[in-house]
Write a structure and sequence with these properties.
The complex is a heterodimer. By secondary structure, chain A is of the alpha+beta class. Chain A has three domains: 296 residues, no CATH class; 114 residues, no CATH class; 57 residues, Arc Repressor Mutant, subunit A. Helices cover 39% and strands 19% of the residues of chain A. In chain A, the strands form four sheets. In chain A, strands 1, 2, 7, 8, 11, 12, 13, 14 and 15 form a nine-stranded mixed sheet that branches. In chain A, strand 7 and strand 8 form a beta hairpin. In chain A, helix 2 packs antiparallel against helix 3 and helix 8 packs parallel to helix 10. By secondary structure, chain B is of the alpha+beta class. Chain B has a domain of 37 residues: Histone, subunit A. Chain B has three helices and three strands. The longest helix of chain B is centred in the N-terminal third of the chain and has 19 residues. Classes of the chains: A alpha+beta, B alpha+beta. The interface between A and B is large, with 53 and 37 residues.
């Protein structure tokens, strides 16, 4: 909620948005809804699986049949605590479930079970990296709540179809402080949050399925002035759209204020096709939720020992991994960042780097493998080249069996045909020639056939590249470049 | 606390209960009476007293994360006034 009046975090001039009356600062706070990774729902034993037939993953509790009572899923509680710990946040050993009351056809209870005054997780902090600059984003709170069902409006001109499969699935609402000052920062924050959740295994982060979605609170002000009136853009479901939504909403607000108007606090919708935000005034009237503690549920109590046990079992998180990669493998901060963003990528890299040169491994994984995967729109899990295969290619370079250039060809072969890299090199005669005698023979031939170039190089040793190229050409790229250089220098007397 | 006409109408609206003008007038007095009665609790000094959440020392019961329910779409939609392909069908909700 952007009402705390926080004014910390000054914008860099580059983050300011120019207007007719001078520069403006945009202030952003986020409410991210992350679906808890669990088999069963928050308060029932129905499945959380995506894409079941209509109303199949629904128990009588989820359908709010009379007399049904909620019983909390202990794993959802553990997942919320793990997430809180991953966000460096305070864990509240006692928290309370409340009823948030409103009417909508996909909410059969007439209220959502949520947490209001006493959430399970309190204040925390997430560190983000925007263009090489580190900044801390405050977390206000994290609470557990139920998802609603799904309304389908386009099946019939006069009716809405309701499917309750999502009804009762556990969500974590993660509320940030209004610390973000640009669309880039907002995107970096959600990317980082998603990465942390995926490392923790507490949410799969699948934005296409709506398993991670953001409500974005945007307001504008002149730098140094108090917070402006905010608008909340609901349910933005991709990192790209988050950036676009912030940009167009900030511009809309600046234009209104500069034309002498004022901003109405309201809920808006981002239309990605039109690239604009639109008012959702129809829902505004119902914004009196009359929260009260749910009498069906006792307060949720945990012991410190329980929290400590979960903490001990946490995996290494992206920030720790990045620091370790820089230290252990001598990687640049940028390369380490690229590698740790997805847990699967980091694991792939570590398998390749094990017992090998870390920097070389990072270069191959990032440039050759990721580059190729991106080009074909593939995830690392579907990579045609396994970590073991890439490692074997690196070994062949390291022990001088092949040159770096041949290695790229070898990578292509393994990518499209598979197979054991060492075998391929053997069978296709790709071994590089390190035998000085053989290289000398080729060099002699070239020197004999090109007296003019030999004259030139005596005057200007910089033209040596031409000779190296000729040797490579004649040897089918298999001559060892270092050996070629040695022999050439010796024979040409430079 | 005295409840006025406007508050009565707002509460009715939030609860989706349709009331006539006559009923609203009557409810004004009724609701005010109920609130006044409950307000007597304000006379008790509760400074430093934790809110009571249970009368016997029991803890919140928790379930294991096991799928053991659902897959009963026929039962779930049996009482629906209108349903189709196991969807609940309701009057169009315009966004």
């Amino acid at each position: 909620m952007q009402t705390s009046g926080s004014t910390k975090g000054k914008s860099k001039p580059s983050n300011l948005i120019p207007g007719a009356t001078g520069d403006w600062e945009v202030v952003i706070g986020m409410e991210v809804h992350a679906q808890v990774a669990s088999h069963a729902k928050l308060f029932s034993g129905a499945s959380t699986e995506f894409g079941g037939s209509p109303n199949s993953h629904v128990s009588l509790v989820d359908a709010a049949m009379p007399g049904m009572l909620p019983v909390i899923n202990e794993e959802c509680v553990a997942q919320a605590v793990r997430t809180g710990l991953g966000l460096n946040a305070a864990i509240n050993l006692t928290s309370v479930f409340d009823r948030k009351n409103y009417f909508y056809p996909d909410l059969p209870q007439g209220y959502q079970i949520s947490q209001y005054k006493q959430p399970i997780v309190g204040e925390g902090v997430v560190e983000i990296d925007v263009d090489g600059e580190l900044m801390k984003v405050g977390i206000e709170r994290l609470h557990l709540e139920q998802d609603a069902g799904k309304s389908i409006h386009d099946q019939h001109p006069d009716y809405t179809y309701v499917d309750l499969n999502r009804s009762g699935v556990a969500l974590m609402e993660i509320v940030s402080k209004p610390d973000l000052r640009s669309s880039k920062q907002a995107q970096a924050y959600v990317s980082k949050l998603r990465s942390i959740l995926r490392y923790l295994g507490t949410c799969d982060g699948d934005m296409e399925k709506g398993n991670l979605r953001a409500d974005v609170n945007v307001s504008v002000r002149k730098p140094g002035e108090p917070l402006g009136t905010r608008c909340e853009i609901k349910n933005v479901n991709s990192i790209r759209f988050i950036g676009q939504a912030v940009e167009v909403e900030a511009r809309r607000q600046i234009d209104i204020i500069e034309e002498g108007g004022k901003i109405d606090q309201e809920t808006r919708l981002f239309d990605s096709a039109k690239g604009e935000t639109r008012s959702m005034r129809s829902k505004e009237e119902a914004h009196d939720y009359r929260y009260f503690p749910d009498p069906d549920l006792l307060p949720l109590e945990m012991t410190q020992g329980y929290v400590d046990g979960l903490k001990k079992a946490l995996p290494e998180l992206p920030d720790e991994k990045r620091t370790r990669f820089v230290k252990q493998y001598g990687l640049s901060a940028y390369d380490a960042d690229v590698l740790v963003a997805e847990r699967e990528n980091a694991e792939f890299f570590e398998t390749v780097a094990k017992g090998r040169d870390g920097k070389t491994a990072a270069n191959w994984v990032i440039n050759d493998l990721f580059g190729r995967l991106n080009k074909e729109g593939k995830e690392i899990a579907a990579s045609p080249v396994s970590a073991a295969q890439l490692g074997a290619i690196l070994d062949l370079i390291a022990n001088n069996t092949i040159s770096g250039k041949i290695a790229k060809d070898l990578f292509e072969i393994v990518w499209s045909e598979g197979g054991d890299p060492a075998d391929i090199v053997d069978k296709r005669g790709m071994k590089q020639v390190t035998d000085t005698g053989a290289i000398e023979k080729v060099v002699d031939e070239i020197i004999a056939a090109n007296p003019k170039q030999v004259e030139q190089i005596k005057a200007n040793p910089k033209t040596m590249g031409w000779f190296v190229g000729q040797v490579m050409k004649l040897s089918g790229g298999k001559a060892n470049p270092a050996a070629v250089n040695d022999v050439l220098r010796r024979k040409l007397g430079i | 606390m005295q409840v006025d006409q406007a508050t009565v109408r707002r509460i009715a609206r939030l609860a989706r209960i349709k009331i006539s003008d006559d009923e609203a007038k009557g409810l004004e007095g009724e609701l005010s009476g109920i609130l006044k009665w409950v307000e007597q609790l304000g006379e008790v000094d509760t400074v430093g007293v934790e809110p009571m959440t249970r009368v016997v020392p029991i803890e919140l019961k928790q379930r294991k994360d096991i799928v053991c329910d659902g897959e009963i779409a026929d039962d779930v939609t049996r009482n629906a006034p209108v349903s189709e392909n196991h969807f609940f069908v309701v009057p169009k909700v315009v966004e």
